What we know:
Structural class: alpha+beta
Number of helices: 15
Strand content: 15-25%
Radius of gyration: 25 Å
CATH superfamily of the largest domain: Hypothetical protein, domain 2
Number of strands: 7
Bound molecules: iron/sulfur cluster
Number of domains: 2
Shape: elongated
Largest sheet: 7 strands, mixed
Amino acid sequence: MQPLRTAAGKRAFVEKLLRWFALVMRPLPWRGNYEPYAVWISEIMLQQTRMERGVEYFKAWMHRFPDIRSVAEAREEAILAAWEGLGYYSRARNLHAAAKRIMAESHGIFPRFFKDIRALPGVGEYTAGAIAAIAFDDPVPAVDTNVMRVFARVCDIDIPLSDKAAKAYITETVRSLLSSGSPRLIIQGLMELGALVCRGIPNCGQCPVDAFCTARRLGVASARPPKKPKGAIVRLEMAAGILVRKGRILIRKRRPGGLWGGLWEFPGGNVGPGKSPEKALVRYLADETGITATIREKIAIVRHSYTTNRVVVHGYLCDVAGVLLPSFRDEERGKWVRIAEIDSYPFPAGHRKLLERLGWKEGGESASRR
Ligand code: SF4
């Protein structure tokens, strides 16, 4: 067992880590010239997103928005549409706001130092640290869940990682390593170690730093970090109406803020426990939009999940009498759009699934005749 506490131990740890990282490093598209804009986009996209999916979205994003100016000048609709499917849309709105600020305050040049990066909308302590280290090779510790898991084991930390003391201890441990090599490579090497080897079930036989790992020596690696109790699952039932009239479909824009703020969806609302989704929908449309609708047919029941919520959406095709301009409450806005244009509007995952069930891309004519 080699101690990580001494300066020689830290150097040896970093040396083994970097030798291993040079061999296994994945060819991710932002690893090359480490352009700050690309590193920033990758860090925001990879929050709450699996790597394979993040890479796919990253490539499409860079094609659509090759620089900060193109993000700043885009309409919010285009930003949200490029983000659709990634969820947590506040990330996209913050990116948009940050790009506008960078254009206004520094002619499109990405901030060079941690404190200025941290001041951008949507950039927290971790993200600012990751950008400073990876884009600029600055000695700033960036501790994501992968890095936390690695050090919970290396240092045998037996309290949940949500505990501030655990995070502070790991952050200081990582900081103490950064003078032993390139911070850019050390931070990425630690992230890669957590992603590829020191996973939920650790593969200690393949680990380059096993000689430093206390949890492995004690035979408790799989029990670190201790799990924190899960939040209670919330189940929601909703009804949504797809109102079609003369080849157009009614959608509404959600008010700003919240999980899906600024996205579009089909009008509808919650269904109370034991209540009929059809009746709830017709009542909602009458009370909240002033539209008299009758249900033509049930299209689908779709399920989707976010954080601890499990949502079931009942989707109905509806006939509409008379009214063309619904009066939604608050800042929600309604709009009749051509079915052929519907793909250019960003939707939350559950409502996008309803659209897919309708198959309008292939069968638009049958719907437009209604
Ligand atoms: S020895 Fe095992 S538990 Fe320890 S850091 Fe390596 S992979 Fe993780």
